[in-house]
Specification:
Elements (H helix, E strand, L loop, with lengths): L2 H31 L18 H7 L6 H8 L3 H21 L6 H17 L7 H16 L13 H25 L3 H4 L4 H7 L7 H5 L3 H17 L6
Helix pairs in contact: 1-4, 1-6, 3-4, 4-5, 5-6, 6-7, 7-11
């Protein structure tokens, strides 16, 4: 596939990820971060007008939610909801219109999600959240500057290589860490004997997967090593 098509497909798929991420977050904000939520976002948003730039961009935990609170006059909860809605809107535009798949849109998407990530506390500290923050920033580097150019240039190969490098690091490290943990279940290929009944977010199929024969679950662990350790070098 031509590099420019790879880039366009990648940008389109990341826009979909952003859409689902913001939509999922928006649905959970009242219960998690509302004034009566588990971890009210108001408890981490403390900024005076004179320090607004530092609070939003360069402080210890910068978040653009301060801008929505100070400039628009939203409450902390509504500021987070506004960021999620704005993110969904921009992501939708990037999905529907190719012309919106540019650096400006994706760096905005990254900053909106990063802002929520910074204020999200425990519930946004999962691996997939940090992955989206890192991948989202790389996506902005991959996206073209529509105002300046839209054609493919040789140095664009560097940004796509960084995406492949991220995929390699994620997969390879996920496999290696299982072995370096020296956990007997990973070394003995029995990890799936316990995984389906102890995973943090079980699915409706987890019960049935747990009933699979032991040999099949061991084969699943071995296949995991194949996918996570031996295949990722091919990404490079």
């Amino acid at each position: 596939m031509e590099p420019v098509k790879v880039r366009d497909w990648f940008l389109w798929l990341v826009a979909f990820v952003y859409l689902w991420a913001f939509a999922s977050l928006y649905y959970q904000i009242p219960g998690l971060y509302g004034d009566h939520g588990i971890l009210p976002v108001s408890s981490v948003l403390h900024c005076v007008a004179d320090d607004l730039f530092e609070c939003a961009f360069s402080g210890p935990k910068p978040t653009g939610l301060h801008l929505f609170v100070e400039w628009i006059g939203l409450s902390p909860q509504h500021a987070m909801e506004f960021a999620a809605v704005l993110g969904m809107a921009i992501a939708s535009l990037c999905i529907v219109f190719t012309s919106f798949q540019c650096f400006t849109m994706f760096i905005t998407l990254w900053y909106l999600y990063f802002s929520c990530f910074q204020a999200g506390q425990t519930f946004l500290w999962f691996q997939w959240d940090t992955l989206l923050v890192e991948a989202g920033f790389l996506t902005a580097m991959v996206a073209p500057f529509r105002l300046l150019r839209s054609e493919w240039l040789p140095h664009d190969n560097v940004t796509l290589f960084l995406v492949r490098w991220l995929a390699f690091r994620l997969m390879f490290a996920s496999g290696v860490v299982k072995l370096t943990s020296e956990c007997p279940t990973w070394w003995g290929l029995t990890a799936l004997h316990y995984h389906f009944e102890s995973q943090c977010i079980p699915t409706s199929m987890a019960y049935f997967a747990h009933q699979l024969p032991d040999w099949m679950k061991k084969l699943g662990v071995a296949s995991t090593y194949l996918v996570e350790i031996f295949i990722p070098p091919l990404f490079l």
